[in-house]
Specification:
about 130 residues; mainly alpha; 3-stranded antiparallel β-sheet; elongated; 5 helices
């Protein structure tokens, strides 16, 4: 067996290490802003959605979680005063989720603090992935 590490293995390991470091830093920073990692992702996806609101169905797709898991996350975030529900004016069966001022404050703070970590990860991805 050769002592040299094939380039693909080295690249895959480096990418996974960079992603894991980013994830770990994200967890630390979001907790500092009073958010669990999942609540941060939930609120971030809602805030990034067109119009600053989303639905449970959209979040299921974006977060790649089950509907029951997203529904539970939404309920806990609502109970914590981080998001609010509003019935759609166009379709009474649809409920729009948006951030409260407190949710905006916490997500905004975490996003700003994570800026250098995002830049570092994007730089690594750009260096490792062709045409990134």
């Amino acid at each position: 067996m050769s002592d040299s590490i094939p380039a693909e293995i080295e690249e895959a390991a480096g990418l996974r290490a960079a992603l894991r470091l980013f994830q770990r830093q994200s967890e630390t920073i979001t907790r500092r802003h009073g958010l669990s990692p999942r609540h941060y992702e939930l609120l971030l996806m809602i805030r990034a959605s067109e119009g600053g609101h989303s639905t449970v169905s959209e979040l299921v797709s974006l977060l790649q979680l089950t509907q029951s898991t997203v529904t539970e996350l939404v309920q806990r975030a609502e109970d914590a005063g981080l998001l609010q529900r509003r019935q759609s004016p166009q379709d009474g069966r649809v409920v729009h989720l948006s951030l409260t001022e407190e949710g905006e404050r916490r997500v905004g703070g975490a996003v700003v603090e994570l800026g250098p970590e995002r830049a570092r990860l994007l730089s690594i991805l750009h260096d490792r992935v062709p045409n990134a």
